[in-house]
Every structure is written in C-alpha cells, then in structure tokens.
C-alpha cells in the first residue's frame, strides 16, 4: 500500500528504485583474556590495523577529492589519535586482545565525546565508523558498507559514514535515505556535492523492507513507499521537466527583472574546481582552506605549499570573485599544533579566528601566501575570518591583513548571533560580510548541526534565523557593502529566492545546486522575492515560513 514518509530533503532530485540496506554493524569482539607474553604481538596487530585503516581512508579521500577528501583525512587522524592508541596499548597490556582493546578504548572515547557538548557529540558516528573498520580488519571479516549490486538501487541506512558516502557510485546508487543525520551533516554536504538525491532524519528508515520500491524526493524530503505506476510516471515526468529547465539555464544569477545575484561555489580545494566551472559558477564564495592543514596535524603547511594551492583556485576564475576563508580550526576540526585537547566544550571555546589570534604566525603565513598567490592575477580576491564575534575581532583581523601586505578586500563571517546583531559595528572595520548559516543556526538555537534529532532547529527556514540574516543584510545595505550567504541555506532554490528578498547580495553553494538556484531566481522579480521574505519572517515555524513563501510566489 502506498504511503508517504517525511524526512529532511538535503540534495535535489528524484530517485525511484528498490531499497538496499547497508551491511550490518561489526559484532562486539569477545572479552577473552590473553597471556601476558602475547601483549606485544597484539599491540603490533592493533597498530597495523589502525595504520591500514588510516591509509585506506586517505586513499578513499584522494579518489574522492574536494570536501570528501578533507572529511576522510580528518577521520584518518581520528584513527591514529595518540591518546586513543595509548589506551588501546594499555588495555592489551592488562589482558585484552587487539580487537577487544580497540573496541573498549573507542567505547570510552565515544562516551567522552557524547558528553562533551553537542558539537563533539556529532562526531560519534564518524568515530563508530573508524572503530568498525579497525575491528573488522582485526577479526578478518568484511567491512559493513555499501551493498554489492549490479542493478541501480536506493540506499537506506541508519547513517552513512563519510568513507561510504564519498565513494558512492551515482550510476548504481540512485539516491539515499538515512534515519539519522541533519541537513548540514557530512553526508548531506557530500550528497549535494555529488548531485545524488538524499533524504536524512527519516524516522523508521531502517524498517523499510529490502527490495521495496520507493520514490525519494530530495527537494521536499518525501519518501513514497510502494508508489503506484501512475504516481511513478508523474514523478518521472516532473523530474524530466526539472532536468530540461536546468539544461536551459545559463548565464549569471539574476531575478526576472534583472536584479543581479552572483551565484558562487563553495570549494574545498582544486579538486572541486571542474564541477564549479561546469555549473557556471561566477566565482568562489567560500574557499575552505582547511584541506591543506589536514595533511599533517602536527605542523602547518609551508608558505610555498600554500601559495601553490591557492594560486590554482585563483587562476580558475581570472575575472571572477574568490572569497577565501582563513583556517577555521578547532571544535570538530582539531589540529595538534593549534587546538587544545582538553577544552570542556570546544564548540564554544578557542576556534576559528580565536585560534589564529592566539597563533599569529600561522595567520600571518597564510595571509602572506594568499597575497603572493594573487600577484599578477586579475582575480578579485577577498579574504574573510571565521567565527567573528564583535568589532574587536574584526579590527584585529583587518590589522593582521594590512600587516601581511594583503591588498585584497577583507571581511567577516557572520556565524555567531552577536555578529548579526552588531553587524553595523563590525562593518566599521571590514569591507564585507558572509553569512555561515550552518553555524549561525547552531549557535542561535543551541542545536548541534550533526544531531538528527535536532534537525527541526537546524532548518534554515526558521524565522529567527531569517531575522538574523535580515539584520546583517540591512546593515551592509546601509553602509553600501556586500553581504553574501555561503552556508547550505543558499543551496535551497526556494530559500535562495527568500534570501534575495532579505537583501543578501550573493549566494554561494555546492556546485551541483547552482543550476537549481539560477532557474528559481529567474522566475521571480525582486519585488516578489521581497514579499516572499516578509511572509516567511512573519511565520512562527520553519514549515510555516516555507509554506508562506511558496504561497506568495505562486500568487495564491
């Protein structure tokens, strides 16, 4: 019997196919005691398994490239964490086998993460995946993962580890659905980068039987179980119409009456450039530079290495705008040489610009590298600081830019509610703002972006979040400066229309979303965008805000 389940749509498109489930979790190894003389052998086995898993994660990252590479390299660092390995070795010394020592050590670390504040609790799924891979290798059993299939299918899982998501084959995996996760989880971000339809935070997803035919709408979040032939035909027709409209879409982003809204790409490094160029990105609105620093968490990359990587991105958009975010370390992106290991709540501790101001030599080297990379190029380079809280932060960053000889524009990310509320003050020190809606929602609602149970509060349609965006955009307009959005909110075509109505001056997103947003903007005038924004802000919930905007734009 046909029925509809509702989750959170995180990647556009429609997928129709049979359900295939992820493999079952690794079984808990037996708690057998080993003789003392066997401890060195077991410790060597454990170390070898850890090294092999880390190497596999890095290899998968190299194959996937882009954002996936940064995520998987972070997981590899997690696998080789010295404190974790010391705990594994200690447990083996007192009688645990290698697999049991790994299992128990990771369990203890898991409990610490789960209780260390919501931001780090979101890393539990990644930690579990690393543990499972190590234990599976030690037990000599296949690693649970994407099922083998010669026929295309829709993948269902409780959650998807980045290592699985990064290498999904779009030719076989039509789409995926998870019971956990949120709209800004790693899997959601990677799904958008791949262009695979995806729905997350769907209650009961793992209870849908293997082989069941489903239709997944990654835009609405609807999953139709056992849709009839007529319904399937209708969905395919709608999907074909969408595809045709996207194919016909080209040129710069603009409303139907010619109001320009540059559409930029979020990139993690040179590997993301081909997709951005193919999608018609007008530049880069968020260049995440963390990927360079994840290669070796013990020390920063050399200035020469940074210059080489930055120049590749700058050269890809010779006449375009490239906005670079300086290193955003801390919280879920720890680096041994920068971030303290004993912070009680890293998400609210020393991260982003706070970390860089405590290590001015790291910031100075990065700014010099950016200045050198831009020499002789006609590109419009802009550099921004993450996690700016107030005017003093903005002033300190601007001064660091000037001291490094940077002639590019420098700006501030608005990810903390205080920065949105005091945007006019911050704009006295910097030349532009960029709204990071993922973290802005996280801090506005005290809701971790990785926790599926809190997806409602991470919904970028929340009216309170729209209010904060409007405050920042209004401040920039009064000062004649730009205010873009580089968070995942920009990838929602309908919300992109509302953001334009709120006064946002540019939109940056994963490359796969650019054609969808370009097509949506071209349907409406600026006046319609503004009316939709007003209606959304007047609502009392995210669901009501979306419905109100849709009603205005449909002329009802």
TrEMBL record:
Its EC number is 2.7.3.9. Belongs to the PEP-utilizing enzyme family. SUPFAM superfamilies: Enzyme I of the PEP:sugar phosphotransferase system HPr-binding (sub)domain (SSF47831), Phosphoenolpyruvate/pyruvate domain (SSF51621), Phosphohistidine domain (SSF52009). GO terms for molecular function: phosphoenolpyruvate-protein phosphotransferase activity. Keywords: Cytoplasm, Kinase, Magnesium, Metal-binding, Phosphotransferase system, Sugar transport, Transferase, Transport. Its main location: cytoplasm. Gene3D superfamilies: Phosphoenolpyruvate-binding domains (3.20.20.60), Phosphohistidine domain (3.50.30.10), PtsI, HPr-binding domain (1.10.274.10). It is found in: Cytoplasm. General (non sugar-specific) component of the phosphoenolpyruvate-dependent sugar phosphotransferase system (sugar PTS). This major carbohydrate active-transport system catalyzes the phosphorylation of incoming sugar substrates concomitantly with their translocation across the cell membrane. Enzyme I transfers the phosphoryl group from phosphoenolpyruvate (PEP) to the phosphoryl carrier protein (HPr). This is Phosphoenolpyruvate-protein phosphotransferase. It comes from Kitasatospora misakiensis. Its cofactor is Mg(2+). Residues 6-123 form the Phosphotransferase system enzyme I N-terminal domain. PROSITE patterns: PEP_ENZYMES_2 (PS00742), PEP_ENZYMES_PHOS_SITE (PS00370). The lineage of its organism: Bacteria, Bacillati, Actinomycetota, Actinomycetes, Kitasatosporales. It is an enzyme of class 2 (transferase). It catalyses: L-histidyl-[protein] + phosphoenolpyruvate = N(pros)-phospho-L-histidyl-[protein] + pyruvate. Residues 151-221 form the PEP-utilising enzyme mobile domain. Pfam families: PEP-utilisers_N, PEP-utilizers, PEP-utilizers_C. Residues 252-524 form the PEP-utilising enzyme C-terminal domain.
